[in-house]
Amino acid sequence: MTTTEILEILKEKFSVEQFEIQSNIGGEILIVPSNVLLDLCFFLRDDERLAFDSLMNLSGVDLADGEKKKLEDGSFEIVGGHLATYYHLHSFKHNHKLTLKVLLPRENPVVPSVERVWRSADWHEREAYDLFGIVFEGHHNLKRILLPDDWDGYPLRKDYKVQEFYQGMKVPY
Amino acid sequence: MISDQLAEILGNKIIAYLITAAIPLFLFLVPYALYAVYAERKVSAFMQDRIGPNRVGPKGLLQTIADILKLIQKEDIIPKSADKPIFVMAPYVVFMGTFAAFAAIPFSSVFIGSNINLGVFYIMAVSSFSVIGILMAGWAGNNKYSLYGAMRSVAQIVSYEVPALLAIVSAVMVIGTLNLNEISEMQTARFWNWWIFGGPLQGIQKFLLIVPMLVAFVIFFVASLAEVNRTPFDIPEAESELVAGFHTEYTGMKFAIFFLAEYGNMFVVSAISTAIFFGGWQSPFGYLGNSFSIPLLVPIEQVFWFLFKSLSLVLVQMWLRWTLPRLRVDQLMAVCWKYLTPYAFVNLVLIGIISLI
Amino acid sequence: MAELKTDHLVLNMGPQHPSTHGVLRLEVVLDGEVVIDVIPHIGYLHRCFEKHCEAMTYPMVIPYTDRMDYLASMYMNFGYVEAVEKLMNIEIPERVKYIRVIMGELQRIASHLVAIGTFGIDIGAFTPFLYCFRDRERILDLFEMTCGARLLYNYMWIGGLSHDLPPMFIPELKSFLKDFRKNIKELNDLLSYNKIFIERTANIGILPADTAINYGCTGPVLRGSGVNWDLRKNDPYSIYDRFDFEVCVGKGEIGTVGDCWNRYMVRVREMEQSCLIIEQAIEQLPEGDVTSAIPKRVKPPVGEIYFRVESPKGELGYHIISDGTVNPFRVKVRAPSFVNLQILPVISKGYLVADIIANLGSLDIVLGEIDR
């Protein structure tokens, strides 16, 4: 089933104007707003025709499409623009795939957690929170997972600056 | 006995006893443990398609001696939160149980530390003394793994004593004595007089006894494996779960003493099996010393046969260790209480009936 | 008698522990020997691979992929280069495709051998481990022959391979396959059907199929639960559709479908299937040049791809976003162990301490790819 066909089914329940299909080399991407994400995910999982029973991958991305501001020390800071989360869904039953993309404002990246839909999102969301600072609302245990709990900053953001000291140890080498 | 002869020569009983006590330690136990470790490593290497220790000395023969030298030099670490006196005492308590058991082991008709009438009983009693040491070690180390190891170990040893003793009792019932030297003496002449083949009895009784005796031996051997914490019953030390069990916190010489005790224990249980079921120090074919009429040769041959049989059983223990996986703690208890103990009871009754015939 | 106040015991298993398969810390909440809860703590091996990638050109990332699942480096290369090739739309020579499959399947055997051997150690059987390593050694010898490295190969390049097969490779491989079949039988006699081993692993850590899917489990963990799913078969990539092989699933002839024993047995059977694939690939192997299609400059067009392959541990996905420069804009790796490890608390609750170790061993994790 292609993304366009899936969009046809989605018409029944959602107003499709809010969705947008982005064409891409590795398969089309469905861009969805964050406020309907949770309902959409439940629908995608539970509808018999779609039956997306597994979340294969969830990645956070820093789109870095904001304004770059030079700082005094030579590094830069990005203001405005977006972060994004990608959801790569897959159905064991029908063997079809779907990619969702949610754009989030860089200053306040909040997105509903899909952990209740697919349990595999648990650690993926924690990872995205850890490395991008994307907040997943409704996640039962949103803590840093790969980095120490008291680490500063979100390393995978394009304007990440390494902290000088971590617990008295010099960090940049 | 040697101690009495020495007392006559030296004119002092205490010194004589001390010397006789030290002989098994320095002449036998320490070299035995060193080379048992070496043998274990070589046996495992042989089973696993590798070479094993081969650097120190010819064929790696000095490897364990080098290891001991290393262990002696190691810093003796006592954890800050440990209960110091108990922590220090524990390895010696464990070792004491093992070492004391050596007193009643009949190496030959002339060399036995103490020829007491309660030999079997004494060894079983004294070797279970090490439980206290293990509990002390596990508790004093103040480490959760140690504590788990110690608790498991105690539960295991105490449980497995029941089938082990029942098996021995059933054998002793026909044998009629607890004196290990006498038991060995009984099974004289040829190997079909060993108790595992029905002993020196005559007629139908002997044939009826073969199977129950074999069962008794198997029960005792399995239970004794559990008592010395060897695979498949090495749950107290279960490396993959509990790191090193009750001796997790020990270093250097104290650690080595636990090892010494473990290998000593392996020998003790093998020695009991040998003395009761496999003819003790008796040769299976008669003595060269008798055929060539050199009477001095006979005791030496006896020592040889006793060690040969016991060490073969030690080898079997090693073989099992490198072949089998480990049971889980609840399965271990199930083996003891659901299988070994009932079988041991049935066996006891059977042997009792046979001995009445 | 006044009520005794009891409390749970929290045991920290790791980061230094003999059987956490690396630097994993498990916070185990215990009631006596019974497990109340397991909380895995990861990140001890974190080196921010994904951040590194953004500063590298595409070919420079390949050695980093080696270091993720260091027991299946070939397959890590495989997934990455196939993803980039797809992004750039490069057609690669036939010979390269076949050699990649041969190497990939050899790597699968090697990885499963480690999984099986260390699982044996977790259960307390030491000897099978060395038997497994003896066979793995011969695979590593084959790799060494080909590319000079034994663990981290950097062998598959974008558009080709670093070296062609040496002349002695095929005969050596054939003799290995011949011996290896016998060794699998020996392994089954020694470990798989050992009574104690079965007691320890059958009916332990049962993972129902729907839970496995919901938690995103893949690879032998998913197949052990009876789900017939293998990307090589169901979503073929590279040239896997040309080979005839079976997907091994847990059948539950011993224990229950989805328990440790079935997960373990899936791996044993997969090794046999891998032998089959390799044999077919050797027969069909065409002649040709393996470096002819390597692009001078790797600069994919703007776009992104999520490409997944069936690594020995499960579904390995690369999500690569290109902004049209020589550096990837974003590389996200969907590491199979990372997802599979999440299931550990679910399947361990209510069992004993020793079963955590069995469960962990049967999941076959590699911390290198979990922490990245």
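qc> The radius of gyration of chain C is 21 Å.
qc> done
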